Amino acid sequence: MTPSDREATGLLTRPDDLVQLLGPTGERHASAEYDPWVADVDDDALVDLHRDMVVVRRLDSEATALQRQGELGLWPPLAGQEAAQIGSATALRADDFAFTSYREHAVAWLRGVRPDELLSVWRGSAASGWNPFEKNMAVPQIIIGAQALHATGWAMGAKWEGTDAAAVAYFGDGATSEGDVNEALVFAASFAAPVVFFCQNNGWAISEPVGLQSHQPLARRADGFGMPGIRVDGNDVLAVLAVTRWALDRARRGEGPAFIEAVTYRMGPHTTADDPKRYRTDDDLAAWRERDPITRLRAHLAARGLDADALDADAKAAADRAAAELRAGLVSIPDPEPMSAFDHVYAEPNSHLDRQRDHYARYLAMFDDAEAAAADAAGTGAAASDPRGGAR
C-alpha cells in the first residue's frame, strides 16, 4: 500500500487519536474515562452485540445477492460498518429518534424494522418502508446530509417540549462537506439541541478519499461549531457504545450536541452500481479485513472463556432465520398501484399535486387506449382471416 493510499483511507491515524476499548485482536484496553459507560455490559450483552452484527451482515449479503438477481433495483452495502451502527444504536432509548442515510440497515434492525420493510424502497414498491413514528426512526434519506437538519429540528422540538429524549443523525464522511450538515451543526450548537451527530468515516465518499476533502480529522470540525468532537474506533463495538452513551447523556442533561467520528471502512462498494476496484487497492482492503469488527468481538469473547463454536452456531442460526424472513418478505411485497405515487406526498391536498395526478392519469390512460385499439385490431384481423367469418 502506498502512503497516499493509507492517508486517503485513514490508516495513518495514530492509536492515541481514537477511543478504543477492544484492540484489533480482541484484547481489552482499559479506559478510566469510558469504562464506566459500559460497566453494565456483561458477557450476555456482548454475545447479543456479536449476534446482531452477524445477523445484519447476513441480511446485507442477502440483499446484495437479491439485487444481483434482479429482485432489487439498488442496494447500499454496510459490510464492515456493523460495529459503528450496532454499537451506537444499542445506546439509544426507545423514545430517542434516529435520522439516517441510506446505509444504516443495522440501526433499522435494532429499531424493529422488518426485513421486508427495509427492502420495499429498494425494490421500488414504496416511497418509504415503515411508519417513522412507530419505530422512532425516519425512513432513509437519499439527499446527502439532509437528515442532519431533520434531526436538529426534531431535537429542538423535544427540548421545547421538556422531554429528555435525544436525536441521532447518521451520515458519512462525504456528507460533512455538504451545506445541510454544516447548517445543522450551527443550529444545534446555537440552540443547545439534544442531538448527536454520528459520522461514519468509512474512508471513501463514493470514489473520493476522505483525505481529499479534509486534511484534519473530521471530529476536529466540531471545534468551530462550539461542540465537543470525539474520534472512536468504529470497528470496536464496545467503544462505540461507550462514546454514544456519553454523548447522549450529555445531550439529555441539556449540554447540547456532540460530534462523533467513527473511523471504520466500507468493505464493499458504495452501492451495487459501484466498482470499488477502480479506485482502491486490494492491499487497502486486506489491511482493513484484519480489523473486522465481528472477528474482533468474537476473539474477545473467546479470550473471556466463552465457547467460540457455540457463539458461531447461535449467531448463524439467528442469521439464517433473518435471511429466510427477508427472502419470504421480499416476494410478498405487493406491487403498488400506479396512482399511489401521489399518496402521502403532502399533508394537505393542493392544486400543484392535483395537476400532476391528472397528467399522470391521462398518461396511463394512453396505454389503456392503445391496448384497446390493439385488441380491436386483433379481433378484426382474426375475423378477416377466419373462413368461417365470411369477411373475405
Automatic annotation (TrEMBL):
Record keyword Oxidoreductase present: yes
Top-level taxon of the source organism: Bacteria
One Pfam family hit: E1_dh
Keywords in alphabetical order: Oxidoreductase, Pyruvate, Thiamine pyrophosphate
Keyword Oxidoreductase: yes
All residue ranges annotated as the Dehydrogenase E1 component domain in the record: 52-310
NCBIfam families (alphabetical): PDH_E1_alph_x
Protein's name according to its UniProt entry: Pyruvate dehydrogenase (Acetyl-transferring) E1 component subunit alpha
Species this protein is from: Agromyces tardus
Lineage, uppermost ranks: Bacteria, Bacillati, Actinomycetota, Actinomycetes, Micrococcales
Gene name of the record: pdhA
